[in-house]
Amino acid sequence: MKLGEKLRYLRLVEGTLRGLGREMTQQDLARALKKEMGGGLSQSYLSQIESGARPHLTNSSRMLLARFFKVHPGYLVDDPEGYHTELTSDLRATQDRLDLWLINGAEEFTADPELSHAMLLIAKDRDTRKCLVLLGAILEAPELVDRLSEVLKPAATTPSHRDGARKRAAGANP
Fold first, then answer.
1. Beta-carbon neighbour count of residue 104 at 10 Å?
2. 85 and 92 Cβ atoms separated by less than 8 Å
3. pLDDT tens per residue, the chain (174 residues)?
4. Both 107 and 158 in a single domain?
5. CA proximity to 106, closest of 14, 19, 9
6. Are 79 and 109 contained in the same domain?
7. What gap in Å lies between CA 143 and CA 146, rounded to an integer?
8. Domain containing 43 — which CATH number?
């Protein structure tokens, strides 16, 4: 993957994580860098990087973008010829696929902000797979679902929610 493609991808993910419902534009990124990081890159500089007109970042630009996007500075270079993402471990590939799946799902469910937010929180977690496996274990014990709902989200726990959970646990359709 080329540096420009990586930067576009990071803008897409960052826009989603920030709840914009769209990718972060180059102008959004330039403003956020200045406001949040105290340093800045111009929109035209970002455009040159993404178009390939400027194939390399300066070290200070690379470090600024790495801190902003919370990625390793070594990520912000072109991948070498012949590099394949399949070489990553199966676990990391699974994590990445789960994160993207959750982020895409969160975008689809923006009409339900609570659900969208929950999906993004799971995607942001260091161990997405572990979060989903834990959720599965919780769902295997419906009384635990009810109790956790009462304690953590009392306003969201209505009789219909509890009844639906019990029916699902009993194998019936709610």
1. 13
2. no
3. 889 999 999 999 999 898 998 999 999 999 999 999 988 899 999 999 999 999 888 999 999 999 999 999 888 998 777 665 554 456 667 788 888 899 988 899 999 999 999 999 998 888 888 999 999 988 988 788 888 888 887 766 455 444 554 454 455 444
4. yes
5. 19
6. no
7. 5
8. 1.10.260.40
Per DSSP, the three-state class of 63 is helix
How far apart (Å, rounded) are the C-alpha atoms in residues 62 and 45? Answer: 12
What tokens were used for 146? Answer: 């009810």
CB 16 within 8 A of CB 103: yes
Question: Which of 3, 19, 8, 6 is CA-nearest to residue 103?
Answer: 19
Q: How many structural domains is the chain composed of?
A: 2
Domain extent at residue 104: 90-170
Cα separations in angstroms, 16 against 9, 105, 114, 118: 11, 11, 15, 13
Residue carrying structure tokens 């993957």: 1
